[in-house]
Amino acid sequence: MRIGVLLLLSVLLLACGAPTYAPVSDRRVTSSPGYHRVQKGETVYSIAWMYGMDYKTLARWNKIPRPYSIYPKQILRLKPKLKKRVVSKPAVIKKAPVKRSKKQYRVRKQTSKKIKPAVAEGHKVKRWIWPVKGRVIRQFSRKDSGKKGIAIAGKAGKRVVATAAGKVVYSGSGLLRYGKLIIIKHNNTYLSAYAHNRRILVKEGGVVKQGQQIAEMGQSGTDQVMLHFEIRKNGKPVNPLYFLSKK
User: Fold this and answer.
1) How confident is the model at residue 4 (pLDDT cuts 50, 70, 90)?
2) Looking at domain 22-77, which of 1.10.10.10, 1.10.630.10, 3.30.930.10, 3.10.350.10 is its CATH number?
């Protein structure tokens, strides 16, 4: 009797098959800690935002030049490389520099033009305006990881505007718990984010003016209508209320 039961269980297990797992390429983070596998739709800015890093640092560690282009399944380092031990080398006699003609200098100067960024790196934000009018229902907290910004209550479909002029560096819903999210780069130091939108009205790479409507208020990624608003300085969250105008 017992042997018959065991045989029946073996047949059922073979029919069902072994459990399947998602391939490594479909996972957000690699099996090695300190690395990230790029998913479709992600940018250097969104990945840096996810890990609370400065996008410039992330780009430098991975030797990614402007305009910070990345591709799906690319592995990004989330920590700096260990410094190699420097071995002293014998002194090298320097040769006298070769003099270039003025014509050669002009050609070299013309071919080394830098790409002008869409948003000036040294641009200063003189005034920050509220992204939406409403009551603040959740305050910023440095200690609580879930309160990296403020939450503003409102009605679905209400206008959400850019707090300051800048470039849209992320527009999508790839970051968990943020819903439909927009990240705007204002200069080399500051970024702002607008989460839980019902509808996004700007595209990635677009330049926006201060006060321009960028989205409609909603509750994507949350259980109530609200706008989660963040400002980050060099990758670190700061209290938006210190920046927003009092009026």
Assistant:
1) low
2) 3.10.350.10
